[in-house]
Amino acid sequence: MDTDPGIICFQHCDSKVFCFELPEKCPVCLSPMANTVLPLPPLRIPYPFVRASQHSCCIVMKPTNGDFLNDYLNSKDLHIGVTSSKGLVVEYDKNGLQYDKASLWKQCLIVDGADESWSEIWDNTLRHVSSLTCWSSERYNEENFNCYNFVLKFLQELRYGALSAAAVSRTRFCESYIVPQTTTAGKYISLYRKLKKSGCVTHRISSKHTACNTLK
Ligand SMILES: [Zn+2]
Questions:
Q1: How far apart are the CA of 46 and the centre of ligand 1, in A?
Q2: 94-126 pLDDT, tens digit each
Q3: What distance in angstroms lies between residue 31's CA and the mean position of ligand 1's atoms?
Q4: 20 to 30 A Cα–Cα from 175, which one of 46, 109, 156, 185?
Protein backbone atom coordinates (compact mmCIF):
# COMPACT_ATOMS: atom_id res chain seq x y z
CA MET A 1 0.00 0.00 0.00
CA ASP A 2 1.77 3.15 -1.11
CA THR A 3 -0.06 5.44 1.33
CA ASP A 4 0.80 3.29 4.38
CA PRO A 5 3.24 5.34 6.49
CA GLY A 6 4.45 2.11 8.13
CA ILE A 7 4.02 2.71 11.86
CA ILE A 8 5.96 0.23 13.97
CA CYS A 9 5.77 -0.60 17.66
CA PHE A 10 8.48 -2.18 19.83
CA GLN A 11 9.02 -2.83 23.51
CA HIS A 12 11.96 -1.55 25.50
CA CYS A 13 12.57 -0.93 29.21
CA ASP A 14 8.92 -1.50 30.25
CA SER A 15 7.66 0.81 27.54
CA LYS A 16 5.97 0.44 24.21
CA VAL A 17 7.43 2.76 21.60
CA PHE A 18 5.62 3.76 18.40
CA CYS A 19 7.62 5.27 15.55
CA PHE A 20 8.13 5.24 11.77
CA GLU A 21 11.67 3.80 11.94
CA LEU A 22 13.67 2.03 14.64
CA PRO A 23 15.66 4.76 16.43
CA GLU A 24 19.35 4.46 17.30
CA LYS A 25 18.59 5.03 20.98
CA CYS A 26 15.52 4.05 22.98
CA PRO A 27 13.61 7.33 23.43
CA VAL A 28 12.70 6.34 27.01
CA CYS A 29 15.95 5.07 28.61
CA LEU A 30 18.29 6.50 25.95
CA SER A 31 20.39 3.34 25.76
CA PRO A 32 21.66 2.43 22.27
CA MET A 33 19.26 0.03 20.57
CA ALA A 34 22.17 -1.94 19.09
CA ASN A 35 23.12 -3.08 22.61
CA THR A 36 19.80 -4.67 23.44
CA VAL A 37 17.85 -7.68 22.35
CA LEU A 38 14.18 -6.76 22.05
CA PRO A 39 11.82 -9.08 23.95
CA LEU A 40 9.66 -9.24 20.80
CA PRO A 41 10.42 -8.27 17.20
CA PRO A 42 9.04 -4.83 16.20
CA LEU A 43 5.41 -5.07 15.14
CA ARG A 44 3.92 -3.27 12.15
CA ILE A 45 0.67 -1.55 13.12
CA PRO A 46 -2.03 -2.69 10.65
CA TYR A 47 -2.90 0.08 8.20
CA PRO A 48 -6.70 0.39 8.11
CA PHE A 49 -7.09 2.04 4.69
CA VAL A 50 -7.33 0.48 1.23
CA ARG A 51 -7.65 1.39 -2.44
CA ALA A 52 -11.30 1.09 -3.46
CA SER A 53 -10.37 -0.32 -6.88
CA GLN A 54 -8.91 -3.41 -5.24
CA HIS A 55 -12.10 -4.20 -3.32
CA SER A 56 -15.00 -5.31 -5.45
CA CYS A 57 -18.61 -5.48 -4.23
CA CYS A 58 -18.01 -3.26 -1.23
CA ILE A 59 -19.39 -0.17 0.43
CA VAL A 60 -16.49 2.27 0.77
CA MET A 61 -16.06 5.61 2.53
CA LYS A 62 -13.56 8.44 2.65
CA PRO A 63 -13.48 12.05 3.87
CA THR A 64 -15.49 14.41 1.65
CA ASN A 65 -12.33 16.45 1.10
CA GLY A 66 -8.75 15.28 1.34
CA ASP A 67 -7.66 12.04 2.98
CA PHE A 68 -8.09 10.29 6.31
CA LEU A 69 -4.55 10.63 7.63
CA ASN A 70 -4.21 14.36 7.09
CA ASP A 71 -7.66 15.87 6.71
CA TYR A 72 -10.31 13.76 8.46
CA LEU A 73 -12.09 15.48 11.36
CA ASN A 74 -15.22 13.53 12.23
CA SER A 75 -17.94 11.30 10.85
CA LYS A 76 -20.02 14.27 9.63
CA ASP A 77 -17.34 14.76 7.06
CA LEU A 78 -17.63 11.38 5.29
CA HIS A 79 -18.49 10.47 1.73
CA ILE A 80 -19.73 6.99 0.84
CA GLY A 81 -19.89 4.96 -2.36
CA VAL A 82 -20.30 1.47 -3.82
CA THR A 83 -17.73 -0.56 -5.76
CA SER A 84 -18.87 -2.86 -8.58
CA SER A 85 -17.56 -6.40 -9.10
CA LYS A 86 -14.77 -4.79 -11.17
CA GLY A 87 -13.82 -2.35 -8.40
CA LEU A 88 -15.38 0.65 -10.14
CA VAL A 89 -16.68 3.22 -7.63
CA VAL A 90 -20.21 4.58 -8.08
CA GLU A 91 -21.03 7.58 -5.90
CA TYR A 92 -23.63 10.32 -5.71
CA ASP A 93 -22.55 13.90 -5.10
CA LYS A 94 -23.54 17.47 -5.95
CA ASN A 95 -22.75 16.83 -9.62
CA GLY A 96 -24.99 13.75 -9.82
CA LEU A 97 -23.87 10.14 -10.13
CA GLN A 98 -20.14 9.67 -10.59
CA TYR A 99 -18.36 6.61 -11.95
CA ASP A 100 -14.86 5.66 -11.00
CA LYS A 101 -13.00 8.69 -9.80
CA ALA A 102 -10.44 6.06 -8.77
CA SER A 103 -7.73 8.58 -8.00
CA LEU A 104 -9.85 9.99 -5.16
CA TRP A 105 -10.38 6.57 -3.59
CA LYS A 106 -6.82 5.53 -2.79
CA GLN A 107 -7.19 5.79 0.98
CA CYS A 108 -10.62 4.63 2.04
CA LEU A 109 -12.32 2.39 4.57
CA ILE A 110 -14.36 -0.69 3.74
CA VAL A 111 -17.73 -0.46 5.45
CA ASP A 112 -18.76 -3.97 4.44
CA GLY A 113 -19.33 -6.02 1.31
CA ALA A 114 -20.80 -9.16 -0.16
CA ASP A 115 -19.07 -12.41 -0.99
CA GLU A 116 -18.17 -13.33 -4.52
CA SER A 117 -21.21 -15.48 -5.19
CA TRP A 118 -23.24 -12.25 -5.04
CA SER A 119 -21.29 -10.38 -7.76
CA GLU A 120 -23.92 -10.70 -10.44
CA ILE A 121 -26.85 -9.69 -8.20
CA TRP A 122 -24.69 -6.88 -6.79
CA ASP A 123 -23.88 -5.48 -10.26
CA ASN A 124 -27.45 -5.84 -11.52
CA THR A 125 -28.81 -4.06 -8.45
CA LEU A 126 -26.19 -1.34 -8.78
CA ARG A 127 -27.11 -0.86 -12.45
CA HIS A 128 -30.81 -0.75 -11.61
CA VAL A 129 -30.48 1.73 -8.73
CA SER A 130 -28.09 3.92 -10.76
CA SER A 131 -30.66 4.08 -13.57
CA LEU A 132 -33.24 5.79 -11.32
CA THR A 133 -33.67 9.41 -12.34
CA CYS A 134 -33.61 10.80 -8.79
CA TRP A 135 -29.78 10.96 -8.57
CA SER A 136 -29.51 14.30 -10.33
CA SER A 137 -27.40 17.29 -9.39
CA GLU A 138 -30.63 19.35 -9.04
CA ARG A 139 -32.10 16.98 -6.50
CA TYR A 140 -28.88 16.71 -4.45
CA ASN A 141 -29.05 18.17 -0.98
CA GLU A 142 -26.06 18.14 1.33
CA GLU A 143 -28.23 17.50 4.41
CA ASN A 144 -30.99 15.19 3.29
CA PHE A 145 -30.43 13.81 -0.20
CA ASN A 146 -26.83 12.82 -0.65
CA CYS A 147 -24.33 9.98 -1.01
CA TYR A 148 -25.95 8.07 1.87
CA ASN A 149 -29.35 8.03 0.20
CA PHE A 150 -27.83 6.40 -2.85
CA VAL A 151 -25.91 3.75 -0.89
CA LEU A 152 -28.82 2.96 1.44
CA LYS A 153 -31.25 2.67 -1.47
CA PHE A 154 -28.81 0.29 -3.18
CA LEU A 155 -28.45 -1.84 -0.04
CA GLN A 156 -32.20 -1.98 0.52
CA GLU A 157 -32.73 -3.19 -3.03
CA LEU A 158 -29.89 -5.71 -2.70
CA ARG A 159 -31.57 -7.62 0.16
CA TYR A 160 -28.29 -8.83 1.57
CA GLY A 161 -28.96 -10.02 5.12
CA ALA A 162 -28.05 -7.83 8.08
CA LEU A 163 -26.34 -5.20 5.93
CA SER A 164 -29.52 -4.49 3.98
CA ALA A 165 -31.65 -4.71 7.12
CA ALA A 166 -29.57 -1.97 8.76
CA ALA A 167 -29.87 0.17 5.61
CA VAL A 168 -33.55 0.93 6.23
CA SER A 169 -32.44 3.51 8.79
CA ARG A 170 -29.58 5.93 8.33
CA THR A 171 -29.01 6.05 12.11
CA ARG A 172 -28.97 2.28 12.45
CA PHE A 173 -26.63 1.89 9.48
CA CYS A 174 -24.24 4.49 10.90
CA GLU A 175 -24.22 2.95 14.37
CA SER A 176 -23.74 -0.62 13.16
CA TYR A 177 -21.44 -0.14 10.18
CA ILE A 178 -19.87 3.32 10.04
CA VAL A 179 -18.97 4.06 13.66
CA PRO A 180 -17.04 0.80 14.32
CA GLN A 181 -14.85 1.45 11.25
CA THR A 182 -14.23 5.12 11.97
CA THR A 183 -13.42 4.36 15.62
CA THR A 184 -10.64 1.92 14.70
CA ALA A 185 -9.37 4.23 11.98
CA GLY A 186 -9.54 7.21 14.37
CA LYS A 187 -7.03 5.55 16.71
CA TYR A 188 -4.62 4.99 13.85
CA ILE A 189 -5.09 8.55 12.58
CA SER A 190 -4.44 10.12 15.98
CA LEU A 191 -1.32 7.98 16.49
CA TYR A 192 -0.08 8.94 13.01
CA ARG A 193 -0.60 12.65 13.69
CA LYS A 194 1.23 12.46 17.04
CA LEU A 195 4.13 10.65 15.37
CA LYS A 196 4.30 13.20 12.61
CA LYS A 197 4.58 15.95 15.22
CA SER A 198 6.98 14.35 17.68
CA GLY A 199 8.68 11.42 15.91
CA CYS A 200 7.73 8.86 18.56
CA VAL A 201 5.01 8.03 21.08
CA THR A 202 5.74 6.00 24.21
CA HIS A 203 3.49 4.19 26.69
CA ARG A 204 4.46 2.45 29.92
CA ILE A 205 3.49 -1.21 29.56
CA SER A 206 1.85 -1.16 32.98
CA SER A 207 -0.62 1.38 31.59
CA LYS A 208 -4.01 -0.09 30.77
CA HIS A 209 -4.34 2.06 27.71
CA THR A 210 -1.50 1.08 25.43
CA ALA A 211 -2.30 1.93 21.86
CA CYS A 212 -0.86 -1.41 20.68
CA ASN A 213 -3.70 -3.17 22.43
CA THR A 214 -6.43 -0.82 21.40
CA LEU A 215 -5.40 -0.91 17.76
CA LYS A 216 -5.76 -4.66 17.43
ZN1 LIG B 1 14.47 1.79 26.76
A1: 23
A2: 999 999 788 899 999 999 999 999 999 999 999
A3: 6
A4: 46
